[in-house]
Amino acid sequence: MSTRSSSERGLALVCGAIALAAHACGPRTEDPEVHAVRTAVIRYNQRLVEAYRTRRPDLLDGIASPTEIARTSRLITGLVARAQYMEARQDELRFGKVRVSGPLADADTEERWAYEHRALSRPDERAPPKEATYRLKYRLKRQGGGWIVDEVLELGAGTSSGGGG
């Protein structure tokens, strides 16, 4: 029978403490519903960029409510009436609070975007992009097995800079 020396026991205790600390400080598993809400917001923004670029609000079908699709359609129609369309790029998306309550959810974000309004007749002619920062609240609702964006609200005045448009 072997006996551990006090230095071996000390080493075992230190190693155990390090393993416990590493486990406690390791990545935390996000609530699956919160993760699903965040993913829905990201997907919405990806499709929104494409909807504005192609002037096709129907690209939001399945990820946004009819009310939100109609709002986007009105904005696209306004641009087309001025013989323009929008190219946009989301440069940063930071989530704040995400709250899930049954079939409803809210997600607060801070987002930085670059965008430009281009002439329909000269799509290759570029202007310096404008930049804007927004604080937004996404209201989502459960539909089928997932989440759709029902409404997007501006929480505070955004900041913008740059020329073009």
Observed structural traits:
165 residues; alpha+beta; 4-stranded antiparallel β-sheet; 3 helices; 4 strands; globular
The mean pLDDT is 85
What is the oligomer described by this structure? Answer: single chain
User: What general form does the structure show?
Assistant: globular
The H/E string reads HHHEEEE
Continuous helix count: 3
Determine the strand fraction and express it as a percent band. 35-45%
What is the helical fraction, as a range of percent?
25-40%
Distance separating the two termini: 82 Å
Low-confidence stretches: 19-26
Instruction: Give the strand tally.
Output: 4
* Radius of gyration, whole Å: 24 Å
| Strand line-up in the sheet with most strands | 1-2-3-4
Walk me through the structure:
Helix content is about 35%, strand content about 40%. It contains 3 helices and 4 strands; from the N terminus they run αααββββ. The model is unreliable at about 20-25 (pLDDT under 50). It is of the alpha+beta class and about 160 residues long. A 4-stranded antiparallel β-sheet has the order 1-2-3-4.
How is the secondary structure organized here?
Layout: H1 6-25, H2 32-54, H3 66-81, E1 84-101, E2 104-119, E3 130-143, E4 146-161
Antiparallel strand pairs: 1-2, 2-3, 3-4
Provide a compact summary of the structure.
The protein has 165 residues and is α+β, with helices and mostly antiparallel strands. It is built from three helices and four strands; from the N terminus they run H-H-H-E-E-E-E. 36% of the residues lie in helices and 39% in strands.
